[in-house]
Design goal:
Blueprint: H1 9-15, H2 18-22, E1 25-26, E2 29-30, E3 33-38, E4 41-45, H3 46-51, H4 63-74, E5 81-84, H5 94-101, H6 120-134, H7 143-151, E6 155-160, H8 165-172, E7 178-181, E8 193-194, E9 196-200, H9 207-220, H10 223-233, H11 249-254, H12 260-263, E10 268-269, H13 292-302, H14 304-326, H15 353-364, E11 370-371, E12 377-378
Parallel strand pairs: 5-6, 8-10
Antiparallel strand pairs: 1-2, 3-9, 4-6, 4-7, 11-12
Helix pairs in contact: 7-8, 13-14
């Protein structure tokens, strides 16, 4: 179970808004406390928009305004793109979620058991994405290239994370005037902006350890630590005091583009991959976004320990799948598909069914293997090498990843590359 931090109602009211607290809430319970938070914002090239005659004061009041502004910028000609909303190239579904949630929708239904955007909101989002290209002058390119294009002054409007502010500012240099503004909202009543980041969770059961952990959590979510975090990342400060004159106030005056995230803090909402009923914290890990739908449930069930065990199992499955796809058996026969904790089922051989595979295995001496739950092979025979000798690394560049074999009797060589002698069984290599 997750240990609850000591109660400190006055501290919570003075330091955290309800939207920030909701980011770490699971099934009505405060399971974590956000210390990093990020939601998408709009960057724009003020010089290009002024040349195109765009009123920047009303730029993000609606998506129609954004598309119309992009069309005007694209009309300047040359290699200039009107806008960039890289939903097609973003490494996860964040920008897609943003378009659904700003219209009052959600990726899942209230119970988290079915798709929640199979409706007019989802259809409107797809139509808007299409309009970005057909009307707004958006070019389809990789998201890294899109950011570089904007930094080079060749894109008018660009949507991205506030964490990219320092990088984009460096790309721009002094080529044009860079500005940021809030994310457009279609549904002014229910619209939210998906907010992701990191949450601190106290797992200690011992009261003394829990109290010490709570003191640390209060520090990293406090105004001083948030000042350090925001100045380094450009993220949304999670502490109400952090944006005051004693902390981030002077920095915001020197960097007005960094102030935009706090202007939309009341629109912050948990990622749509968790149900609105759960209001759970997003505990995603880098490059493992397919775990998001389970993060809140795992946290509620058993904390990070069960999450880690699930990661190990998923890593083992991915490793075994790669081995199964990349390794081929002898005589062109596919290697048996891999399972965990049991013998692998027999695949078809040369399209002739399982009986043909069994006959081929008996004729050539091929043996299958056992694989444990972590994807590690348990070979029943010695692994083979290249065809030079049992002590050489071999001619295959990948040979260093293979185990050494016992040479064939009386020959002092490996059986991997050399053809078998008459009557000598043919065996599979084990990675």
């Amino acid at each position: 179970m997750i240990s609850s931090p000591p109660k400190d109602a006055s501290f919570a009211a003075e330091n955290y808004g309800e939207r920030i607290l909701a980011l770490g809430r699971v099934d009505g319970r405060q399971a974590g406390l956000a210390f990093n938070a990020s939601n998408p914002i709009c960057y724009y090239n003020e010089d290009l928009l002024k040349r195109a005659g765009v009123d920047t004061a009303t730029l993000t009041e609606s998506w129609d305004n954004v598309i119309a502004a992009g069309a005007k910028v694209r009309g300047l000609g040359g290699d200039i793109s009107g806008m960039a909303y890289d939903v097609h190239g973003w490494p996860d579904g964040w920008l897609f979620e943003a378009m659904i949630m700003q219209a009052g929708g959600s990726l899942l239904n209230e119970l988290g058991t079915a798709v929640g955007f199979d409706n007019e909101i989802g259809l409107a989002a797809l139509r808007t994405f299409r309009r970005f290209v057909t009307e707004g002058g958006m070019r389809l390119m990789d998201w890294d290239q899109s950011r570089q294009q904007f930094g080079a002054g060749l894109t008018g409007i660009y949507f991205a994370s506030p964490a990219n502010l320092a990088q984009i500012t460096g790309l721009v240099g002094g080529k044009f005037t860079l500005r940021t503004t809030t994310f457009p909202i279609t549904d002014k009543q229910r619209g939210r902006i998906p907010t992701g980041g990191n949450a601190a969770v106290i797992l200690a059961r011992d009261p003394a350890r829990a109290r010490a952990a709570w003191e640390y959590v209060k520090f990293i979510t406090g105004p001083l630590a948030q000042k350090i975090v925001v100045e380094m990342t450009g993220y949304l400060p999670v502490n109400l005091k952090a944006s005051g004159p004693e902390f981030l106030g002077p920095w915001y005056e020197q960097n007005p583009n960094a102030r935009t995230p706090i202007l939309q803090i009341e629109r912050a909402g948990p990622l749509g991959c968790l149900s609105r009923r759960q209001h759970g914290a997003h505990l995603a890990r880098p490059a493992r976004h397919h775990h998001r739908r389970d993060a809140g449930r795992r946290l509620a069930r058993g904390g990070l320990a069960s999450d880690r065990r699930a990661d190990e199992r998923d890593d083992a499955r991915e490793l075994s799948a790669r081995r199964c796809r990349s390794w081929r058996g002898a005589a062109g026969a596919s290697r048996p598909f891999l399972r965990f904790g049991r013998r692998a089922p027999q695949p078809r051989a040369h399209g002739r069914g399982r009986g043909a595979w069994r006959r081929l295995r008996a004729r050539e001496g091929i043996e299958t293997e056992w694989w444990d739950w972590q994807g590690r092979p348990r070979p029943r025979l010695a692994a083979t090498r290249c065809g030079r000798s049992s002590t050489a690394l071999g001619c295959d560049p990948d040979a260093t990843r293979m185990r050494r074999s016992t040479p064939a009797p009386g020959r002092g060589r490996c059986r991997r590359c050399s053809p078998p002698e008459p009557g000598e069984p043919l065996r599979l290599a084990v990675p």
